[in-house]
Target: Transposase
Amino acid sequence: MEIITGTERRRRWRDEDKLRIVAEAEAPDAVFALVARRHEISRGQLWKWRGQVRRGELAPVRVEPEFIPVRVMA
Model:
């Protein structure tokens, strides 16, 4: 019997990282399981992220520049 005494904290992944890992897994010569292992995530987690990308639930955040009108007074 194994007794687990500590609690491991869950990692939080940024969307940019998830997208990068999914793109790596979908490369023509990539092996899905090896990509998951390389990033220390389960194949199931990678599969979930892949589904989110395909459904459009996980997309890169695009920040549009915001312009503020300025008036110079002499």
Notes: The mean pLDDT is 86. The chain is about 40% helix and 0% strand.
